[in-house]
Automatic annotation (TrEMBL):
The chain crosses the membrane at residues 21-45, 92-112, 124-145, 151-174, 205-229, 315-334, 354-383, 403-421. This is DUF6350 family protein. The keyword Transcription regulation does not apply. The keyword Repeat does not apply. Keywords: Membrane, Transmembrane, Transmembrane helix.
């Protein structure tokens, strides 16, 4: 980017990298703010907020922008004391719509690519620093201006928390444009690895293959859960439509409500994983649902919640197989990667192949299950939180139980996929040879 370039073709002064980073970050702030404010403005213009003043609607938009970026809001209200009188209470709204949180991430991803094209490896930090500084300033200002006695946000959190998706997007985008970490940070990883011993390289390759196989299992589990969520929404569409009709939100209000639910669609997919794995999903203090047992209290009139099974049925237990299938994908992928150096080392030390093959499969299953379960537990932590109202201060799957249940189920599937991999590969090879012979 340049400060100016006239029609004669003469190049203007080069824009400083810190300023270009600030400009790119300002675009991300502006686009994300418009995306939040437009639905709120539409509802306000159609009278959906009643006699809500314009400045209050604008502050609501700023507070929604903070929630999208993961900033917790403190809700201050009046409760009921033990003697029946009024008592001030406060709670925290910390429930991030992961679908909307992808907007600043991808905008920062774009900015990171543009900054990488405009800088060298030793100057990229200047653009990233400028982008991060402006975004932090925007978060600080939004938290300061939009805080009210009823709803407030800490200015420190407002400046720091939005930097998490922003910096992640900047770094990933810059890495994507550079093509390698060596070009991005000026460190040649291949040369460093070449100076290590052979056993270290084998151990590193084995560990990296395990991590990628666990990632395949986690993505497979979340993908299958998203498919199950889609089927459940389609089957229970009549119940969802009934809630829409009972709300009577109108065209604009219904559209805004649907948009808000789409923002929480990734959260619901992770909730579905908690339900199908048996780890369970909390729907408020004292309420939980899973494929094995369900105890759900009254729920708010949100259409998507009408699709939650209110009672366990025998067929629901079949959902437990979904994480196992995801683990099969991970174990099969590890078999295809050809990096099972632990099995090779064990086969050299112990001649009994039946023993070494069994131990290798169990070790692969345990490690893949651990990585896959940890990734899904992280997703459960991101997808849960506090609704800040009443008993809905506890929402989403428990990360620890998600780690235990999903980890164990993907471990079983990884053992099966690792063991069945050679036969599956032989079957594919035989079919390919048959097709080639016919041709």
């Amino acid at each position: 980017m340049k400060l100016r370039a006239d029609q004669s073709g003469l190049r203007g002064l080069p824009m400083p990298l810190w300023l270009q980073g600030a400009v790119e970050s300002f675009q991300a702030v502006l686009i994300s703010a418009v995306g939040v404010l437009v639905p709120i403005a539409a509802v306000w213009l159609t009278g959906g907020f009643g006699s809500f003043p314009l400045d209050h609607a604008a502050r609501l938009g700023g507070q929604a922008w903070l929630v999208v970026h993961g900033v917790p809001l403190r809700l201050n209200g009046a409760g009921v004391a033990a003697d029946g009188g009024a008592s001030p209470t406060s709670s925290v709204l910390a429930f991030v719509p992961l679908g909307f949180a992808l907007i600043p991430f991808f905008l920062s991803w774009r900015a990171g690519r543009r900054l990488a094209r405009a800088s060298y490896a030793d100057t990229l930090w200047q653009g990233l620093l400028g982008a991060a500084a402006l975004y932090a300033a925007a978060g600080f200002a939004t938290a300061f201006v939009c805080s009210t006695p009823e709803v407030s946000a800490g200015v420190g959190l407002g400046a720091a928390v939005p930097l998490v998706p922003v910096l992640l997007g900047l770094v990933v985008g810059a890495r994507r444009e550079a093509g390698s970490w060596a070009r991005l940070i000026g460190v040649e990883a291949v040369d460093w690895i070449s100076r290590t011993g052979q056993y270290s390289r084998w151990a590193g390759s084995y560990a990296w293959a395990i991590i990628r196989a666990g990632y395949v299992s986690a993505v497979g589990a979340l993908g299958l859960s998203a498919a199950l969520l889609t089927v459940d929404l389609a089957v229970r569409w009549a119940d969802i439509a009934t809630v829409y009709e009972a709300l009577g939100a109108g065209g604009v209000g219904g559209a805004a409500l649907t948009l808000a639910q789409l923002g929480y669609a990734p959260n619901l997919a992770v909730w579905t994983l908690g339900w199908s794995s048996g780890a369970g999903v909390s729907l408020g203090v004292g309420s939980s649902a899973s494929a094995l047992t369900t105890a759900v209290g009254p729920l708010p009139p949100i259409p998507a919640l009408a699709a939650i099974p209110t009672s366990s049925v025998p067929v629901a237990s079949a959902a437990l197989v979904l994480p196992v299938i995801a683990g099969v994908f991970g174990g099969w992928w590890f078999q295809r990667a050809g990096e099972d150096h632990f099995d090779e080392w064990l086969a050299i030390k112990v001649p009994a192949r039946w023993f070494t093959a069994s131990v290798s499969a169990l070790v692969v299953g345990a490690l893949v299950g651990l990585v896959g379960g940890a990734l899904c537990a992280g997703a459960a932590w991101l997808a849960g939180g506090s609704g800040g109202v009443g008993r809905f201060t506890q929402l989403g799957p428990n990360p620890l139980w998600t780690l235990v249940w999903v980890g164990a189920e993907t471990a079983i599937g990884a053992v099966l996929g690792y063991a069945l991999g050679p036969w599956l590969e032989r079957g594919q090879l035989a079919r390919a040879e048959g097709v080639a012979a016919k041709a």
